[in-house]
Amino acid sequence: MKAYSLGRLLPTNTSEYFGPRIVVVVLVILNIVGTVRSCIHIFAPDSGAESIAGMDVTVAGGSNAIALLAQWGGAQLLEAIVIWAVVLRYRGLVPLMMLIVTLEQIVRTLIGGFKPVTSAHTPPGAVMTNLLLPICVLVLIASLYVRRRFRTPPAGE
Length: 157
Description:
The chain has helices at residues 21-43, 62-88, 94-114, 124-143. By secondary structure, the chain is mainly α. The protein has one domain (6-147). α3 packs antiparallel against α4.
């Protein structure tokens, strides 16, 4: 088994993960935050729009923003459920989930750049995306690494 491989993104063995354990720990931490965030968007009366992000939801269309955030929370919860399934049962797909989490941060950064949120203060999601993107990239790269004890030496060595 090579030290690094893009083949780790779609492995044939989805039950075992051979990369660094810290990657799984980081994915679990990210997913705890993601699960909580999605539940806030779904269940908070204002979906967190005003109470957390500082958006004025009393304006015309404010209830639509609340509804859209709740629907986004539903999509986030589905992603979190898939990640929990990977962490608990299909660990071989951890690198794929790190790719998805990383791409989500990239997409959020790009969209936030040309469609910024207007609020009383910078929403925590915007701050977290800027912090998480480089961390996710590094963890994604690490997830493609195979720990030494799982590498097969080439024939003849």
